[in-house]
Amino acid sequence: MNEDRGYQNQSQNFDTIVGPSVSIEGDFLSKGNVRIEGMLKGRLETEQDIEVAESAKIDANVTANNMVIAGQVSGDIKAQGKITILETGRVQGDITSGTLAINPGALFSGQSNMTGGAAAEGSDAEEVAEGAQEEVAVGADNEE
Amino acid sequence: MYYYVYDSFVKKDKQAFRRLEKVNAGLTRFGMLGEIAESDSRQGVRDMVQQGIDKGHSTIVVIGDNRTLHEAANAVLAHEHVALGMIPVGGDISLAHSLGIDDLEALPEVLSARKVEKIDLGVVNDQVFIGSLDFYGSSAILDQQKVRLMRRSPLVRLKGFFSYLKKAEARELDLEVDSMYRIHARTPHLSFVNIRTSDVAGDVKGKQARVRFDSNMGRLHLVIVDDLPRNVLYRHSGHITDREYERIPHTSFFEGDRFAISSPQPLDLWADNVHIGTTPATIGIIPKQLKMIVGKRRLF
């Protein structure tokens, strides 16, 4: 069994990995990179990056540096850097980030606030459905 | 002068005794003579180490396996001036690998140099552990470990496999971490790792998880193996006993200072493979507590 865990950043090492059959409740505060494949309810904060795997279900307000979302997140998200919602990602809540990228097929219901670009401030995004813009990269000036 | 404590099993175990002979010649060459004590059914390793401390010895070398070192660590805990060394012989000597003292030919020189590193100790209830505190959802994993250690015949291994399939069972567990969050898991194996005994950090082949897993950094690592199908779990049982957790699919990794573990039914807990009681239990860490003689090739 050589199962691909579906890492988004192939060079990144994690300090915490929450496996698919594990559920967490409470304030999860970390200083390192975090990968969630299971369930988390409460609050999720880290000074570094978060990967939300396709199998993950998060019901929490989230704070991170950068974030890649392939699973479900219900709650407000704040990131200093970039938030990427992949095609399997489902986000319900407001997003505040430097930049935001939404892949085709992703779902995002909420308000987005781009701190990295003036044009993006206060823009709304409702359920970006399949076949929608290839990448909603508001504040793209600041993208790496 | 060094104080040597033999675990009682050593002289009865021919293989262990042969390994020891390799070291003895080197110790004589380095002029490292000392007082010798041996544990028996009445006085265990802890008692013998305590006797050495009472006699004023500040360097104690135990001869045995991981369990021997575990007992010695619990004896020297309250005596910060005492340095502990190990001559690894017997079944599970994985801690010696971690401490860089598993090369018996080089060991007399290592002991003679007496390079001491202060290492973290895990604490469970009123006991300490060096390597890990484990819950095994099935005694079959321990059986499997014994089979591997004893290098049994294929027939015994096959029997072990069927025993494993029959017995392997995941259990429900609840954990509280640093009084901040709670984890609920169903797992066949859980481990609080203090000093890890394997190093797969640079080995990408077969790795399922990319995780930072450093020892002696003042934090415990909590590893939770996923509730895998039994045949998959059996295939990875060697990775459990060798603690190559990155190779096991869907494994969870956490860090923390304080943990509380509970379960609907009492579950056996093993510290450095010594049975120390059952759940519930509280687990913590004492940073830089034990003075340990280490080699250059240690894993931390």
Describe what you observe in this structure:
The complex is a heterodimer of chains A (144) and B (300). Chain A is mainly beta and 144 residues long. Chain A has no helices and 13 strands. Chain A has strands spanning 16-18, 23-30, 34-36, 39-46, 50-52, 57-64, 67-69, 72-74, 77-85, 90-92, 95-102, 107-114, 124-126. In chain A, strands 6-8-10-12-11-9 form a 6-stranded parallel beta barrel. Mean pLDDT of chain A is 82; it is low at 117-144. With 300 residues, chain B is an alpha+beta fold. Chain B contains 9 helices and 16 strands. Chain B has helices spanning 14-29, 45-54, 66-76, 94-99, 107-113, 139-150, 154-167, 230-235, 237-241, and strands at 2-6, 34-38, 59-64, 83-88, 116-124, 127-129, 132-136, 171-177, 181-187, 189-193, 220-224, 252-256, 259-262, 268-271, 274-278, 281-293. In chain B, the strands form 2 sheets. In chain B, strands 1, 2, 3, 4, 5, 6, 8, 9, 13 and 16 form a 10-stranded mixed sheet that branches. In chain B, strands 12-11-10-7-14-15 form a 6-stranded antiparallel sheet, covered by helices on one side. In chain B, a hairpin with a 2-residue loop joins strand 14 and strand 15 (274-278). In chain B, helix 6 runs antiparallel to helix 7 (154-167). Chain B is globular. Chains A and B meet through strand 1 and strand 2 of A and strand 9 and strand 12 of B.
Number of helices of chain B: 9
- In order across it, which strands form the biggest sheet of chain A? 6-8-10-12-11-9
Q: How many helical elements of chain A?
A: 0
Rg over C-alpha atoms of chain B, rounded to the nearest angstrom: 19 Å
Structural class of chain B: alpha+beta
Strand content of chain B: 25-35%
Uncertain stretches of 5 or more adjacent residues of chain B: none
Strand content of chain A: over 45%
- Helical content of chain A stands at under 10%
Q: Compute the number of strand runs of chain A.
A: 13
Largest sheet of chain A: 6 strands, parallel, barrel
Radius of gyration of chain A, in Å, reads 14 Å
